[in-house]
Amino acid sequence: MTAIRAVVFDVGRVLVQWELRALFEKLIEDQSELDWFLQNVVTPEWHFQHDAGRPLAEMVPELQVQFPAYAAHINAYATRFNETIPGPVAGSFEIVEDLARRDVPLFAITNFGAEFWAGFRPTQPVFTHFSDIVVSGEENLTKPDPAIYRLALDRFGLAEGEGLFVDDSLPNVEGARANGFAAHHFTDAPTLRAELEALKLL
């Protein structure tokens, strides 16, 4: 059995919080209207197009034509995206720091739009600990497509079984397990820390 020697993190909802509501609750006071907006206008499914590589210059005007009354809100999605990320997930940055101190190789695979990643990554010094990060929007591949895991193994220089992949999405975890990774379904930092200790990585 191959020994795990590296940890491969998801970003959203593992390392940092992500919630579209965090931005739009600043722009829409009425809770029923806010709920409707997030279910029908700027939805996670619509946002996922950018994760998959579609440029904002196509997505935003198209949606503004569909919902002209919310044109300014849709523009805010493009210009204020970092406000959908209110802060780190409790305890996760500390795990990264502790792994880095032990010289455990660190990587990430994230479903993240390329344009948003360019604006977000520089705000988070924690990413200096990562040797490489596969970003879906840069590769036009998203988890749980088997190809993104194969690409990651190749880029990271890992043999099958050498990387522990950590994600909050069960389909992404199952995809990783089927394509060369050991995997941990993330629920909270203490549970992850316990597994990393059991694996002698912490």
Please write out the topology:
Blueprint: E1 6-9, H1 20-24, H2 31-40, H3 44-51, H4 56-66, H5 71-79, H6 92-101, E2 106-110, H7 114-120, E3 132-135, H8 136-139, H9 146-156, E4 163-167, H10 170-177, E5 182-185, H11 189-198
Parallel strand pairs: 1-2, 1-4, 2-3, 4-5
Structure report:
This protein is an alpha/beta fold. Helices cover 46% and strands 11% of the residues. The protein has eleven helices and five strands, in the order βααααααβαβααβαβα. It has helices at 20-24, 31-40, 44-51, 56-66, 71-79, 92-101, 114-120, 136-139, 146-156, 170-177, 189-198; strands spanning 6-9, 106-110, 132-135, 163-167, 182-185. Helix 4 runs antiparallel to helix 5 (71-79). The protein is elongated and about 55 Å long. This is HAD family phosphatase. It comes from Sphingorhabdus pulchriflava.
CA-CA gap between termini: 20 Å
For the largest beta sheet, what order do the strands appear in spatially? 3-2-1-4-5
Question: Which CATH architecture of the largest domain?
Answer: 3-Layer(aba) Sandwich
For this structure, what is the CATH class of the largest domain? Alpha Beta
Classify the beta-strand content into a percent band.
5-15%
Query: Taking Cα atoms only, what radius of gyration do you get, to the nearest Å?
Result: 18 Å
Q: What is the count of structural domains? A: 2
Count all strands and give the number.
5
Structural class: alpha/beta
Protein name: HAD family phosphatase
